Amino acid sequence: MSGITKLAQSSEDHAAHAAWQSLLKRIPYARHLGLEIQPGQAGMEVHLPYREVLVGNSMLPALHGGVIGGLIEITARVAAQSQDAQVRRPRILDTNVDYLRSARALSTFASAEIIRQGRRTALVQVTCRQEGASAWTACGRVQLLFSATERQPRERA
Amino acid sequence: MAGADGLPSNDPVAVAGQLNEQVPHSRDLGMEVVAVETDQIRMRLIPQPWLLADDDAEQICSSVLYSLADSAAGLAVFAAAGALAPIATLDLRMNYLRPAASGRALLAVARCRHLTDEVAFVQCEICSEGQAQPVATGSATFMRNTSGKRFKAFNEQENSA
Hints:
The structure holds two protein chains of two kinds. By secondary structure, chain A is of the alpha+beta class.
């Protein structure tokens, strides 16, 4: 990769990072979970740092399935919204998560792949892995609806 | 609790409530067990400002409903099985029928529809308190008796302590 290509790539990453960050920070529950945006191998990733309050099974310990579900839903929402031409806020219609292995007391990273981005709906696949592991912890698919009638004061302004 | 082999029938709500209290994430979100029937659990969650979907919307984040459904479904398996052998969520599917208003508590009902030695199928419905129509429905599949290596190691540690 030439120096100029690298520079262009890094400024693109920087813009994507800022866009994802601004979408994420408006979600109170994402702030509560402690989600952060970071550049990953293929686009942006959402990082869920480990904290004791995220645990579902204290004996193992393992993260709560709902925490992984939330990471997947919020990642899908931010990915779909960042790809929308008008940056409309989508509504999540349904979420389907498959749990592949127990999520341990470690940092978890989610990356999104947009399977379809349409004018009214988006389908996003999200995969989660944990620090030090290449195998997926969980994967999920989220269907989102972009409604023309929903009021979105800040984005429209 | 690890050694308990069943839910005492004298006060199932208290037992399920205790189980729920031992789950840090459920406690963090403010989930409460309100009723336990044979194969069914009812839970309640009072919305807080940090559980909302957007700074500009008076709606509870769908992921809060997702967590509530997962917790209620897990407890429904324990209720139906009458035992506390560990379980693991294989998958959970949620349909968000309508937005959940932040001004109303959430009520979840999870019912274990089928139980075998290995798996459990649970259905869940979440309503906004005082409203007849559900805001979300869910469907979960669990593996039962998932005493993996780490769980066994934990029990050995506990027993020798």
